[in-house]
Please model this.
Amino acid sequence: MAGLRNSIVLKYLVSVGKPDTVSYPELINEICRHIDAEKASNLDASKLSQNILLGGGKRKMDSQVSRQDDDNNGKKNKNGGQNGGNNNNRGGPPPAQIPRFCKYTPLTDTVATVFNQAEHRGIFNYPLGIRTPANKRDNTKYCRFYRDTGHTTEECRVLKDEVERLIQRGQLREYVRGANQQPREARGLWHPHTDAIVVTLRITGQKVFRILVDNGSSADILFKSTFNKMNLVGVKIEPTTSSLSGFTGDSISSEGILNLPVELGSSPCQHIQAVDFVLVDCPSPYNAIIGRPTLNKIRAVTSTYHLLVKFPTVGGIGILRGDQTESREIYEAANRLA
Model:
């Protein structure tokens, strides 16, 4: 497990290519998937070792003992609530008979994700153990709810019933679709808010922070201070006589226009757009502004509520997520300077 802990996060973040676009739930699910695979492998090896030591004649006896244990465990549960399976010390309520349901409440996420994120609350009633004999199970699949092999957590029908039971008791309501909750893509944000969409993009292969996505801007702007830091040797600046005007009526002269490639989104839903930046020499808390010209070219849809930009690509829907913390830091810094 030590090697697992040291490598899972790094390998996953490297594999997605854009670590800053990975959400916390996605990271937790990926870690759980690796842990489940390792546990399934360890349990399978342990059972194989026991079979070798005890001999093939043990299998039939194990099956009979397993059925007898299930009956005994059921009696113990009715009498004293004892756990006869391998789920002792789980930190939640004692094992109980989980009711079966015919209809299930629509969820905003998978059952496995709900369990992974809510397990620490100690609200789940855990089952006594998988009744299927070990020699008839798929030992490559691991269930976190049972902590045993045979099926995956997502395939677990008992877990699905347990989640439904908790929802009907008024718990896990945040995972119920349409239950007067924030949309899934707005989770993790402070609400209510009036924050701007501030993103990080790669311009000419260089990561540039503090880029404002502004539907109200009629130009894509690169500030002179940022241009100097990027050290763009050999980039041609086309002269222009146009100027930019703000809502106060003040105008700012531009120093020219330069065409630079900008990477939008992450693979496979990535698009590289050539952007005509207007070079402006004036103080700004932002390094650049992506305005209507580029947003229209990539057919983007923006949502300030979700701090999100979506646009079509060959590989699917590309996404840019705004950094709310950075947006607030910029706003506070600008107010201090005002």
Observations:
- Residues 1-5, 52-89 have pLDDT under 50 and may be disordered.
- The radius of gyration is 28 Å.
